[in-house]
Amino acid sequence: MAHPKITLVGGPTALIEAGGFRLLTDPTFDPPGAYRLPYVTLTKTAGPSLPAAAVEPIDAVLLSHDQHADNLDHSGRAFLATVPRVLTTVVSARRLAGGAQGLAPWEGTTLAKPGGNSLHITATPARHGPAGIEPLSGDVIGFVLTFSDQPDRSVYVTGDTVWYDGIAEVARRFKVDVVLLFAGAAQTRGPFHLTMDTNDAIETAHAFPDALIVPIHRDSWAHFT
After folding, report:
1. Residue 42: how many CA atoms within 13 Å on its side-chain side?
2. Residue 89 class from Cβ within 10 Å (0-12 exposed, 13-18 middle, 19+ buried)?
3. What is the pLDDT of residues 161-176, one digit of tens each?
4. Does the pLDDT of residue 135 top 80, yes or no?
5. How far apart are CA 161 and CA 180, in angstroms?
6. DSSP character string of 52-121
């Protein structure tokens, strides 16, 4: 597998092209605006660099979670209906209309090209804030992508998470070439961060010393610090 081509669309949305596959992380294609959630209002400050039509066709969407508008906005939800596979958390798959597939941490699934390469996708643990935050923030997963033409090298998409033992376990289990690190030090109602801050990003880079670290989801929203 050659190094993947990564195109940042904006926020958590990135196009990953590798091994003959086209994958999109957390689709957000709305223009700037406000989103009223049960406990907070999120404000989008910049639109995408590309429209949804510019990233098609897509083999699969890697959706870390569906419950927050900065990871799945209105246009992103509409986009899900245009792709053949949507991989996400088990609870998100239940909430989404259509054929979304829910994966628990360490559970996997395989995509295949006719007569060509295959791609194994493993769901990875994520914690969207400090310990004990799960009842408020909800379930989140990341993804490790392993391509059949180079099975000993992988791409890791962290999803919305802070640094904790679950991320260290990913580093122990996989040889990773590229980490798409959801950063931004997101902060809403409390003094704590909901995604990786600078120290968390450094810890992650230290855990994956041979990987290219690509920070995403660090701008375009007012709650990133």
Report:
1. 22
2. buried
3. 989 999 999 999 999 9
4. no
5. 12
6. GGGG---SEEE-S-SSSTTTS-HHHHHHHTTSS-EEE-HHHHHHSSS--EE--TT-EEEEE-TTS-EEEE
Taking only the tens place, the pLDDT of each residue in 185-217 is: 767 776 777 788 899 999 999 999 999 999 998
Query: In whole angstroms, what is the distance from residue 25 CA to residue 183 CA?
Result: 14
Torsion of CA 82, 38, 142, 219, to 10 degrees: 90
Amino acid at 49: S
The domain limits of the chain are: 5-216
- Report which of residues 193 and 104 the model is more confident about: 104
For residue 115, count CB atoms less than 10 angstroms from its CB and return exposed for 0-12, middle for 13-18, buried for 19 or more. Answer: exposed
Sequence-distant (≥ 6) Cβ neighbours of residue 118 within 8 angstroms: 110, 111, 112, 147, 148
111 with 21: CB under 8 angstroms? yes
- CA–CA separation, 106 and 94 (whole Å): 19
Query: How many angstroms separate the Cα of 75 from the Cα of each of 20, 27, 87, 184?
Result: 26, 8, 18, 22
Estimate to the nearest angstrom the gap between the alpha carbon of 76 and the chain centroid.
13
CATH fold of 5-216 reads Metallo-beta-lactamase; Chain A (3.60.15)
Q: How far is CA 170 from the centre of its chain?
A: 15
183's tokens:
């950063």
Average pLDDT of the chain is 90
159 neighbors 41 (Cβ within 8 angstroms): no
